[in-house]
Amino acid sequence: MFRKKTDSSSTNIDRLPEFGFLKNDDIYMDNACQSPRPQPVIDAMDRYYQSYNACGGRVKYKWGQQVDSEVEETRQLVIDYLGLSKRDYICTFTLNTTYGINLILGQLPSGAYHQVVTSEIEHNSVFLPTISLAQRFKIPRKVLARADDGSLIYALADLEKSVVVVNTTSNIDGRLLTNIKQLISDTHKSGGIVIIDAAQTMAHYHELLIGCQADAICFSAHKMYAGSLGVIVIRKDLLKTLAIGVVGGGMVSIVNEQGYTLLTDDMNSWLEPGLQAYSEIISLKNAILWLKNVRPGGLSSSQHIEKISKILYQGLLNIQGLKIINSQASSLISVYSNNVDAHRLATFLSASGIMVRSGYFCCHYFLLEKQKFPPLLRFSIGLQTTEADVEKVIGIMRKITKG
């Protein structure tokens, strides 16, 4: 019944040509994990490997100079994309969002902060490191609620000398941190800092972040149509306070028998020990340029996501026996069925060429411990998703849930 049918046509006629390598019967809806890469991004990575595959920051020959130029262009483009100033912020590269958050929290100076604040709907990339920080510094940790609109519910006392670490888009149901600018302002007035997990925001909701004066913004390039890469945009004032302890090549100007001096004219390097993922960094530049110009169906990327997500949300809402976690449409929609376990649903969908995530999405505290939900099924759409994809998903879901 659910056997995948082979489609000889190579592409969905409504799909962006940049995703022409996707088959009609391959419906990828796990963008929250990582997005498919459009052809211009793949081409950019190939060019690096085939034309100037060299180290950056270390060499004087032509290939290395081109790498340096592209890396610096990427740093500036990221800062510009967020509406920030290079005078106040630097852009640095790492493994992923999780590692970036740990890198900052693990090097904060002891005694500077009195409490740690996070929210109940955080990914483990935030939830676990904030537990670790509170234990290491022996300071209180507060887990605050989020409203249905995603805003953090807090009192000013919650922010006093606090390290606030929260997401701007939930990886459960897409709720946005709608009071982000007020939160940052109140935290700064209270002597604290705000570190943002923007992993689910940068691809489709980055407008929320434009001009926000967070102390650090961490995200993953592989969730925004680029290669596998972590990014930290950090305020220089905060970077200067860190007790830099993750060290290595490319970071120092002087080394003697018992000490070293960090590069004072290259603060980016302070969080970049060793060789970097140059192909992935270059791919990020091309992904941002693509995102700024792509027009699926003549719509902006955000309009396309809004349109497709509303169709999917309404279709799932009409399936009897299906419980939707979301309170509104989003690029991320999580559900469970009264009739079929989510892992079985994911398996049945896979047999029809539909790729989705099942489980607790690394949000064990909120989903399992607090809400006591069964395993969930999550649909996370992207710019490759078409109306035909969504209609097929709705039809198959109706069949397998008998709704």
Task: Describe the overall structure.
- The protein is of the alpha/beta class.
- It folds into 2 domains: 17-38 and 299-400, Aspartate Aminotransferase, domain 1 (Alpha-Beta Complex); 42-292, Aspartate Aminotransferase, domain 2 (3-Layer(aba) Sandwich), CATH 3.40.640.
- The chain is built from 11 helices and 15 strands.
- Strands 2-8-7-6-5-3-4 form a 7-stranded mixed beta sheet, sandwiched between helices. The chain has a 4-stranded antiparallel beta sheet with strand order 11-12-15-14, with helices on one face.
- Helix 1 (39-51) runs antiparallel to helix 7 (278-293), helix 2 crosses helix 7 and helix 8 (301-317) runs parallel beside helix 11.
Index terms:
Aspartate Aminotransferase, domain 2, 15 strands, disordered N terminus, alpha/beta, four-stranded antiparallel beta sheet, 2 domains, seven-stranded mixed beta sheet, Aspartate Aminotransferase, domain 1, 403 residues
Give the strand line-up of the largest sheet. Answer: 2-8-7-6-5-3-4
- What does the average pLDDT come to? 95
What is the straight-line distance between the termini? 16 Å
Structural class: alpha/beta
Beta content comes to 15-25%
Number of self-contained structural domains: 2
Give the C-level CATH assignment of the largest domain: Alpha Beta
Order of helices and strands: EHHEHEHEEHEEEHEEHHEEHEEHEH
Could you say which overall geometry the principal axes of the C-alpha atoms support? globular
Which architecture of the largest domain would the CATH scheme give at its second level?
Answer: 3-Layer(aba) Sandwich
Residue stretches low in confidence (pLDDT < 50, at least 5 long) are 1-11
CA-atom Rg in angstroms: 22 Å
What is the total tally of β strands? 15
